[in-house]
Design goal:
Layout (H helix, E strand, L loop, with lengths): L1 E6 L2 E3 L5 E9 L6 E7 L6 E7 L4 E3 L7 E6 L4 E6 L8 E8 L4 E3 L3 E5 L2
Parallel strand pairs: 2-11
Antiparallel strand pairs: 1-3, 3-8, 4-5, 4-9, 5-6, 7-8, 9-10, 9-11
């Protein structure tokens, strides 16, 4: 099992920035995929950004050019740098790690963009 703990959410004004972190601990599962998802009230969970073991990244069109996903291999941690935040970015953000067989989710961290 892998336990994921997210941090870095909060309240920010439009145009501001936040950096989310997600650290994994537990068994030494080989992680081949790391992703950030979000779910706004009344909406389905959606992919925000992902990073596969080879280094390729993928972003939702709505966040391209504003968000950056990165990882620290030594710490088994993934980050999401969010710039130029908009009210539409308000949601609970979840990290997701995947091994060859299993998938693991964090508990979520709230991001609220409001003036």
């Amino acid at each position: 099992q892998v336990q994921l703990v997210e941090s870095g959410g909060g309240l920010v004004q439009p145009g501001g920035s936040l950096r989310l972190s997600c650290g994994g601990s537990g068994s030494s599962v080989r992680i081949i995929y790391m992703g950030w998802y979000r779910q706004a009230p009344g909406k389905q969970r959606e992919l925000v950004a992902s990073l596969i073991s080879g280094g390729s990244t993928n972003y939702a069109d709505s966040v391209k050019g504003r968000f950056t996903i990165s990882r620290d291999n030594g710490k088994n941690t993934v980050y999401l740098q969010m710039n130029s935040l908009k009210p539409d970015d308000t949601a609970i953000y979840y990290c997701n790690f995947r091994g060859v067989v299993d998938s693991y989710w964090g508990q979520g961290t709230q991001v609220t963009v409001s003036s």
